[in-house]
TrEMBL record:
InterPro entries from the UniProt entry: CYTH-like_dom_sf (IPR033469), CYTH_domain (IPR023577)
Limits of the CYTH domain: 1-203
SUPFAM superfamilies referenced in this protein's UniProt entry, alphabetically: CYTH-like phosphatases
Regions crossing the membrane: none
Organism annotation: Salix brachista
Chain segments annotated as coiled-coil in the UniProt record: none
GO molecular function: pyrophosphatase activity
Organism lineage: Eukaryota, Viridiplantae, Streptophyta, Embryophyta, Tracheophyta
Pfam families the record matches: CYTH
This protein's name: CYTH domain-containing protein
Amino acid sequence: MEVEVKLRLLDAANHSRLKEILSPFHIKKLNQKNVFFDSANGTLASQRAVLRLRSYSNNNNENTRCVLSLKAKPVLNNGVSRVEEDEEEIEPLTGEQCVEEASKLGLTQSRIIKRCKDEFGIDEEMGFVCLGGFENVRDVYEWRGLKLEVDESKFSFGVSYEVECENDDPEKVKRELEGFLKENGIDYKYSEMSKFAIFRAGKLP
């Protein structure tokens, strides 16, 4: 179970201000591309599951890492997200080929793909289709013993900004993070939709 605090930053100005304040604690920047898959008739979606292929690229736009993840039964309430998550690394070249031709995903020797078939019922005849996706720039910070992830998600219909923190005590983290944002005059709201839900809705919250 992945448990995260998710707070939506209201605009680019608040996002930039937060990054500026956190800059002494910055440890890395990640360029991510998120692509989603399902069967043509939405087998995973009907069971509240999401199959995501996330690739990480360097400054030359070359994929350096690729992670396949299966998320199920998400709950997002009062800025706290809980979701069952299973992750598996695959070869970047394999990931690129699956994005170009979704049918290759079903042929991948993958524990997660096997779960999609065995547990969720995506059989060989059904196969996978690509739903599309979005890019995300993630700045990671080590702050007060916590790992903060500040995201700029670039959808075809707009850009959203969010700060996330994975922790087993989300209410405590949320209080601390909210206090910090208020002290520094950063406008935010509790996230009400996952990035995938925003992508599928086709509009910003």
